[in-house]
Amino acid sequence: DAGVTQSPTHLIKTRGQQVTLRCSPKSGHDTVSWYQQALGQGPQFIFQYYEEEERQRGNFPDRFSGHQYPNYSSELNVNALLLGDSALYLCASSQSGGEETQYFGPGTRLLVL
Amino acid sequence: QQQVKQSPQSLIVQKGGISIINCAYENTAFDYFPWYQQFPGKGPALLIAIRPDVSEKKEGRFTISFNKSAKQFSLHIMDSQPGDSATYFCAASIYNNNDMRFGAGTRLTVKP
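The joint structure predicted for all components is written out below.
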């Protein structure tokens, strides 16, 4: 049973560029949440997708957007990259209506130069 | 956005000792309190979680103690092992509301 998978593992971009990160949830999960983890910090909630819609959003600007597909996989898009966007981006999946424990993927390390 | 305060930032324990990490929260609506373990280059992995209807939960060497009136909870790792060396995060959320708030993390080192 595959856990949460994310791609790519590492990414280097320059300021102003756009980036797309991908996530496949754990088998049986229908809800995907995205988090940003700066170096030495705890993860910060970006948003959550359920039934292909953004269900909840943290304190992140509109440059951060997402999408969920019918197979529950999800994308995180960040436009107009800033140096401060450099972080580990984590995807977590959960099953709605159940315990809703979140299981995290290994993350995508984004470096903005 | 941080509503969960975690201490200490770092902790060094001898093998076989007890590791204790503390967290305090502000939002009384929180009703789900998980602890995650994170190794370098990996995503956080759920260790143990508690709801406020119990004051303690134990799973193997890991115990969560919960004090609702003080709005505090802690993780105790008994018989700490070098393999427990990792960063530990406490978190809190409102059930069915997955805007999970994390503490800043505690870097645990267990010396052999």
